[in-house]
Amino acid sequence: MKIHPLQNRFDAGILSPRMHLRSDIEGYQAGVKDMVNFVVLKQGPAKFRNGTIFIGEVAGSYARNFPFQLSPDSEVGEAFDIVISDDGNLYVIGATSAVLGAEVLTNTSFGSGLNGWEVTATGGASVNWVSGVTILEGGNNPSDRATISQLVTINPADVGNTFRLTYTTETQTELLKPDIFLDVGTTQNGTDIAQGIYRGFNDSLEFTPNTDTFWVTISANGVEEDPGSFEPNVTPVPRTTNRRLVKISLADTVGEAQISFPHSYSATDISRIQTRMVPDRDEMYLVSGNNAPTRLEYNDITGVWSYSVIPFTSEPSEWGSGSYPSTLTFFQGRSWWGGVKNSPETFWGSKSAEYENLTIGSLDNEAIEYTIAQKGQIRWMEGIRNLVIGTNTAEYIVTAQDGLLTPSDVDVDMQSANGSDNIQSLPVGNAVIYVSSDGRKVYKSVFKWTEDSWFSDDLTFVAEHLTDGNRIVDMSFAKNPENIVWCTSEDGNLLAFTYEATTERAGWHRHETDGRVLGGTVLQIAGRSVFSMVVSRQVNGVSVLHVERMDPNTYVDDAAFIENETPMDEIQVEHLAGATVSLVVDGAVQPDIVLDSEGRGVLKYSGNSVVVGRPYKGTFLTLDADFGSQTGSARTYAKRWNKIFVGLYSSVLPLINGTRPPDRSPSTPMDTREPDKTEIVEVTNLGYSLDAPILIEHDLPLGMTITGILGELGQESL
Asked: How far apart are CA 316 and CA 194, in angstroms?
């Protein structure tokens, strides 16, 4: 008999072999047996994945990348890859602005009061310290002066270098305040090396010392009350008489160069790092468990990048060498820290709006310390509707009777008992995505209003074989244009699933490349989610680390774009030296070539525009054909596809069961690439089998989207 089946959606993704006889379920009709280098789209089609473009190279043999996200209108760019390598350096990929060397001053953020600073005040002026803030109170007399100073000793080899002295006040305000004096001299309060007078809330002074020992002085004078304007009915300009300093910094400037900083992480530490952007600042916090928490900061006023250990106020006694927080988040105006080896069930919340102040107290705005009354080390923390915490044994929510967490109002309730690995969780819509303690399962935890509780579902249930002996080591979420969670797996390939909250369906797909993926992250750039990864590649037979980003118009990996006003006969791409590469020249595919040891290669046909990169192929294999019979399943009946039709959208033609449909039409001029097809193409098929699979292969560096598969299937009769 003849059957005319149709599969017009693939959003169930790859199905486990355990489900290959489950033709009775809806997911079978929307699933596939395998899908390599294809992405499931939310609407149902499967699209050949985008290729990657080469961004940069870093030293080392192992590294991971993390997203540093700036505001959308930032002049220096919206986002940067932060790459931490086992060569001992943290790299800010793509940033080429001023960078500071090692900090010269001590107690720069006043974490230990005014220790290390000399304090003087004249007349009615005064210097005070309150909760990490140094207050220079000049008073109302301009002749009075509040001053802090410090004797500095630099490396004699750095004499003659340019140094930058920077101050930062607590808040930016429109009120007129006293001037800040930045003085540098060979004597205390001296100005013979440099002097600067500033009124902003953040400014800096650059100078070149001629000696390796000098004094740095920061001071504020008193301010007279402004008599106001002589015009009638005009309110005098308000003034304040103090300056509230939160940071003073002095370091050698490296100048315009690739930004990098030395770090103390081992390769194992790097694999465990979790990061968060500080909500109201251009700062990133980093934790690993073994190392003291650090922060990477970009100052958009001075253009300076800096990296340092976070100078906490009242750091908990449980924190110390080899026993620091391994996870963090922000929630209700506080920073939250947990996963400390010496106190695994305890978490801490900072003072309200003071993320680096952990002074415990009883007032509502003071820091919080709480220990979960069940055994298990905290692995991740996420602030969505509640503060949600995952340990290696269970998942909890932290609540308060009055809604706002305070030292006297904290309650912890267990929601599930799955357990988690030490991998950063992901907020996805109103859900939290996390990895199980064995690294094999991905759970979604979501609040259900009808039950007034959080529930966890196993998103790997239908594709559990993908992580068999191949645990997940990293995750990131690309929310636009598709909702895709990208997972780096232990074997160096990518696993991913497209998640649609409205259907609660996760369609899995897997991805391979000519190299080993070590880590991935997502950057938000121009409203689009850009997946970026660190890949170990072979260049002239030597392993190197490349930073690459997926590009919506590229279908080769590690790609380079070459443009020339006159046609080119040959190219040179050093980062692809020794590799077999695919080429798209003036929009048309040319035969693959092998680049020499200098990255040079000869084109078969000259052109003005070349896209060159490492090729990858896509394979798409349907599940066994089982469309029923009079007795139920048709699995044991011989079948043959008499005709196979594949729906394509804006695509080149693939191989369908080894046959490529005719790819030239009379209307297309010679020496011109055939236009992309949006149509249903047909191939004939020979031979009977019990499973009657359809294999679609894509071997060209151009785009392809499968919208559906249909045809005429011949099946043995009873």
From this structure: 40
